[in-house]
Design brief:
two-stranded antiparallel ribbon; 8 helices; 7% strand
């Protein structure tokens, strides 16, 4: 794929960054639209979105640094490369934590806003994976299957080798994830249900996709990749959170 979309003089628009930018903007617009329909105060949406993006990017970069700590110790200059190398789970964890801190400072309940924002996060991730596809990062394993992609100019994926298009699979799952979460949000009104479903669906999907990823430099924990290892705990957290939310719903019905 071609990551360099447009070059004008010394200025180049890269597909990876463009897809991330489109994803962030659309995610924010969708969150604003849904906030009005749900009766949530829109004044909290923008600062929460900023917290999620800024601290999410920092968290994704931080977790990547942790996974390649041996290489960083050998070559600390790697930390100066801020454009490449992110692990999504770091962004999810740190982004949610930053939003929680902001909600505590401003003294408003976070769960309803998490239910609002997390479907948008899934949408942003879908576009982000399209950016990965254009850049060739987050690539899949070699395959003999007819369903494959061959990169010829990638700085990340092996070139001229048939690879599983894990980026496209991930993008498709994230678009589906976004749609399903919006449907759930329209049917279930109890705070926290959509958020827990996000954690459950994403962790399961990510755990499965990791089996087909070929970029092993992201680190591992035993036989599992770093992301698979984290997925287990995210899944447990999501299931526990959903159980608590549904139990609260049952109590309300009993009253």
């Amino acid at each position: 794929m071609h990551n360099e979309i447009i070059t004008i003089g010394n200025f180049t628009i890269y597909g990876y960054g463009l897809m991330i930018a489109i994803g962030i903007v659309l995610a924010y617009l969708v969150a604003e639209f849904r906030a009005k329909r749900l009766g949530l105060e829109s004044k909290n949406v923008f600062p929460l979105a900023v917290c999620a993006v800024v601290f999410g990017l920092f968290g994704a970069k931080l977790l990547y640094w942790i996974t390649v700590i041996d290489e960083i110790i050998a070559n600390p200059k790697m930390m100066l490369d801020l454009a490449d190398g992110f692990v999504v789970y770091g962004g999810i964890i740190v982004g949610i934590f930053a939003c929680w801190v902001y909600s505590r400072i401003k003294k408003f309940g976070l769960l309803s806003y998490m239910d609002l924002i997390l479907p948008s996060v899934a949408l942003a991730q879908a576009f982000g994976r399209l950016g990965c596809f254009l850049a060739g990062c987050c690539y899949g394993k070699e395959t003999d299957s007819a369903c494959h992609i061959v990169f010829t100019e990638s700085q990340f994926a092996p070139n001229n080798v048939p690879l599983i298009p894990t980026q496209l699979f991930s993008s498709g799952l994230n678009f589906l994830h976004f749609a399903v979460l919006c449907i759930i949000a329209g049917k279930v009104k109890k705070p926290g249900v959509v958020s827990s479903c996000y954690l459950i669906f994403y962790s399961v999907g990510r755990f499965i996709i990791e089996f087909f990823r070929g970029d092993i430099e992201r680190g591992s924990v035993g036989a599992l990749s770093t992301s698979q290892f984290i997925s287990i705990f995210i899944l447990i957290a999501g299931v526990c959170m959903l159980a608590i939310c549904l139990k609260r719903q049952e109590k309300v019905i009993e009253k």
